[in-house]
Write a structure and sequence with these properties.
Blueprint: E1 9-10, H1 11-17, H2 23-41, H3 43-49, E2 50-58, E3 64-72, H4 74-82, H5 89-139, H6 148-166, H7 170-176, H8 193-196, H9 205-227, H10 234-253
Antiparallel strand pairs: 1-3, 2-3
């Protein structure tokens, strides 16, 4: 790692590990890999992945002197392994190692982006859901935030949304699936008991994005009703939610 936490390998440190007894032979392999990258992606890419440096090396007398070296990124080290001597077992092992590490990095980047998109979808859905609740408070005469009827209504809404997305209600989702997202996942934290009770944590990124859109649609419908100063009971809101989801299913089937 360098001072900024970026992974890199020094050519002279890799030389004996790759079973090259002479630096000039291993340096030739590095230059070959660098030239191949420069040919395909340009000199700037070659400089990024094969930075030429100067490091202190020990000479025969035991003294140290400054000599040429290369600082390789993971990709640069992988290309160097690919350009190495096929007869050396260390080269073969290095090829596998760097191929795996490169793939792990790619998957890590994809996972990070998926988690980011998931968090965005969930935050938008939470905002829209809060607006929907506010509209309910203004336009449902029998709405009370802490009443059993209201809690049952929102549990119904959530389950209808889950069934629309997955064909399962919240409890069935938790039973049938492995948890997919939770706070601290990227930092290596394990899901808490509370996280495992939230059905949304078992949805895929695509399902969460669709849930976001469905809740936004319900929110817009509720805002239209509020603008028209129409007051609906919880039972009528129940029917409205079911109708909206039914229309959405019909649109998909058309």
């Amino acid at each position: 790692m360098d001072a900024y936490g970026r992974e890199h390998w020094n050519g002279r440190e890799m030389q004996p590990l790759m079973e090259y007894s002479q630096w000039r032979d291993y340096a030739a392999v590095i230059r070959k890999a660098r030239a191949s990258l420069a040919l395909v992606e340009g000199e700037s890419a070659a400089q990024k992945h094969f930075a030429e440096t100067r490091n202190l090396v020990r000479i025969g007398s035991g003294a140290r002197r400054e000599a040429q070296d290369f600082r390789l990124t993971r990709f640069g080290a992988y290309l160097t392994a690919m350009a190495g001597d096929d007869t050396k077992s260390a080269v073969a092992h290095a090829r596998v190692y760097f191929a795996v590490r490169t793939r792990e990095a790619e998957l890590g980047a994809l996972e990070a982006e998926e988690v980011r998109q998931t968090a965005l979808a969930r935050s938008r859905e939470m905002v829209d859901y809060r607006v929907f609740r506010d509209m309910m408070a203004e336009n449902a005469p029998d709405y009370s935030p802490s009443s059993p009827a209201t809690r049952m209504f929102f549990a119904m809404v959530q389950n209808e949304l889950y069934r629309h997305l997955t064909g399962m209600d919240a409890q069935e989702i938790r039973s049938a699936r492995e948890i997919n997202t939770w706070p601290g996942r990227l930092e290596g934290k394990l899901p808490r008991t509370a996280d495992r009770k939230v059905a949304k944590n078992y949805l895929t990124a695509a399902e969460l994005a669709k849930l976001d859109r469905l809740v936004a649609r319900l929110c817009l419908r509720a805002m239209d009703i509020a603008d028209d100063d129409v007051h609906l009971s919880l039972a009528k809101w129940d029917g409205l939610v079911r109708t909206e989801l039914m229309m959405s299913r019909r649109a998909l089937a058309a």
